[in-house]
């Protein structure tokens, strides 16, 4: 999908009067480390960085974003454009994909107020598209992503979903350490020393072994926002959460997903929609009547230029493909010789089987790239029918209810140990619907808690 780019405007959230942080035994000292530059981490950093020295450590190969990831691919040679460069590229010569979170909801009054601020800054906009089910009239499949309705609009970040976390970080004074994996956190006097890896050892999509860990600095407080911080090194995501905090984490189930980014010549959408006599779709749910996978798949694609679709797999299929060694649970590295020969073609063929009868001609694929989301979403155990144990973690293969549900009592949506100054935030700490809104509010709330506990009043 393609969006116009917005200028960067400083965001001030909540606290109108700056209050200094002080270094004594009862109040927070000035150095705070945030592990993860995705939705939760960027929101927490934006709320804290005006009053503390904040450093965000992000593992992403191309920079912050996490599950709010975007990919710009140069059409001429199919090379991925660095995210920090892509703000000024010519979109007519690229394929654009939001391949993680394609949109977000604002169901709570608090999130609606935040989104209103973001809209004023021209960071986000409502996604006013046409949505439907295929085959037409088939609507008994779970809409667990929460497609827009008149009563519940959804929003997109202008310039790609990754731009929202980045604008939050860029508008603050937080330092961002890109391509850095936090592997260990050790107590040092009354502070925490972080150790980690950079370069190829840092990325989860390689199988390069981690050797010597380098010190990443000493901090007075640590906020962990990576859903995989509690995993062992086998996950190759940020790990090393201290035992003191681990025992307090909610025990949620991971829902894995695969996505596949596909660019077509401008034929598929025209044929599909003319056959159905519909307005050109910008999103739909496929009922997989002809698929070996028993659930739904969500599709999103652009309305102009090269036609860019993102196919999202079912959790059951992702669980089948998530591991290479069933005894050790080791992930298959995210390497193209696997991604684009197994999950990519499988998702595309399942899509073709479902829509084939609606097409007047075979769509011409000009680009294909698959992506694995090993911890796509955290889900409550009562939503899962089929739970599998893989290398010490629980994964959901099947859901019995939609993930979008009514929230009656939000409660605290982060974990805090104020004595140790350790914090854990993210949608896996929330009883809201998993996804962007829960993750963002958790980040803002943990920042407000830290300020309330340790910022000098008056």
UniProtKB/TrEMBL annotation:
Pfam families: NAD_binding_8
Alphabetized UniProt keyword annotations: Signal
The keyword Kinase is annotated on this UniProt entry: no
Signal peptide: 1-20
Keyword Signal: yes
Source organism, top-level taxon: Eukaryota
InterPro entries in the record: FAD/NAD-bd_sf
Protein's name according to its UniProt entry: Amine oxidase domain-containing protein
Species per Swiss-Prot/TrEMBL record: Fistulifera solaris
